[in-house]
Structure formats: structure tokens, C-alpha cells
Sequence to fold (219 residues):
Amino acid sequence: MLKVIRIEKSLFEENEKLAKEVREILNEKNILSFNVMGSPGSGKTLFIEKTIENLKEKFNFAVIEGDVEGVIDAEKFKKFNIPVIQINTGGGCHLDANMVKIGISEIKIDEIDILFVENVGNLICPAEFDIGTEKNIVVSSITEGNDKVLKYPLIFKFSDICILNKVDLLPYSEFDFEKFENDLKKISPETILIKLSSKTGENFFEWIEYLRRLKKGKK
Ligand SMILES: Nc1nc2c(ncn2[C@@H]2O[C@H](COP(=O)(O)OP(=O)(O)O)[C@@H](O)[C@H]2O)c(=O)[nH]1
Ligand SMILES: [Mg+2]
Fold:
């Protein structure tokens, strides 16, 4: 006897339902939320830290950290004295909407303006799971080389915003920015590209201005 069980479909369907619920909870409280994806080491955590550093006087932040193991990234947010929830997937390569729903249930969301969710670092699985946040961000860095858009198109298509990070290292690399930009336009014309350095702060204001406009648009 051969029996095929289509787990994939029901998993995705269940996730969609939960993502909708998360979105409703966050929208009801007028919270602007971001799902930050990208390779390990692309600079997701530093990007979120820098954003909070820039705007902590203006908005109340919360962070949900998704990692396979440990609390290394979550601890980096202690200095801000904000709610931080660590989710350990124990091997899972992405967060899902249920994990985020549990995460936000641990936060006093009435007191929050902006929520960052740092997804598990990789360019494949996170792109298949809507986690209920408002905007998807992929952080790509120039040290990863400029073939990533063509090699992992799904995550770039899935993302509303592409942060091209580590531009301070441009002088030491052969990164072809024009090619990256053209590939992104071809693969995902709607995705907004912002190049910056989370380390030196170079061009960071462009992202901050964009975020402020998004937040204003919600009110
Ligand atoms: N030079 C440079 N280094 C960066 C930049 N952003 C992050 N890094 C460094 O890259 C490494 C990985 O950053 P991290 O934020 O932990 O990446 P994550 O794994 O994507 O969360 C750390 O050593 C950061 O200090 C940047 O814009 N320029
Ligand atoms: Mg990180």
C-alpha cells in the first residue's frame, strides 16, 4: 500500500491563517513591523541595532530574535532596555507565523510602535513563510558577492526592501553595484533598494527617512 500525505500544503495553509492573525493583531495596535531576513553575517542584527539607536527617542521598539540556538543576538539589545524575545527553532531554518504569534503574546504590545523580527539567517526557507509582519526586508552585503539576486531570486521577490549593507567595504571588493541593481530590477522591480553601512552609518539616513515615512503613513 502506498499512501501520500501532503503535509507541505496544509503547513503552508495553516501558516497563512496564522500570519493573517498576527497581521491583524499588529495592525490593530498600529505597530509597524519588519521581517528581517538575509544570510548569516550579512549584518541583520547590526542593522536593527543601528535603526533603534537612531530612533529610540522617537519610537518604542521591540525585537523578536530567531535563531537555531542561543541568545547571542538577543543580548545585543539589552543596552536599549526594550522587550526582546528570543525564539530558538532548534534546527528549523526559518521562523513561522505561529512562532511570531507566540513571541508577540509575550510583549506588552500596547506600548510598542515598531517591531523588528530577525529571521533565521539563510536565503532560502524564510522566503517561503509569511510571518505576518508588514514589510519584508532582505539584508544583503557586498561581501557576499553580487550574484545572490540571481541565485536566490525568491527571497528578493518576497522582500519589499533590499538593504545592501557594508558599503564601507566597497573599496576593498570587486562588487559591481550596477549589476546588483539591474538584477534586482529584473527579478523584483517593486523591491526598494537602499545601500548603506550599518557599521559606519554611511547613507543610513536614507533608510531612517524611509522608515519614518512608513510610520507616518500608518497614523
Ligand atoms: N564593515 C562592516 N561590517 C558590518 C556591517 N554590518 C555588519 N557588520 C559586521 O558583520 C558581522 C555580522 O553582523 P551581524 O549583524 O551579526 O550579522 P547577522 O548574522 O546577519 O545578524 C559583524 O562583525 C558586524 O559588525 C557594515 O555595514 N560594515
Ligand atoms: Mg544576527
Remarks:
- Residues 164 and 205 are 14 Å apart (CA to CA).
- The pocket of magnesium ion (ligand 2) is lined by residues 44-45, 73, 118 (CB under 6 Å).
- The mean pLDDT is 95.
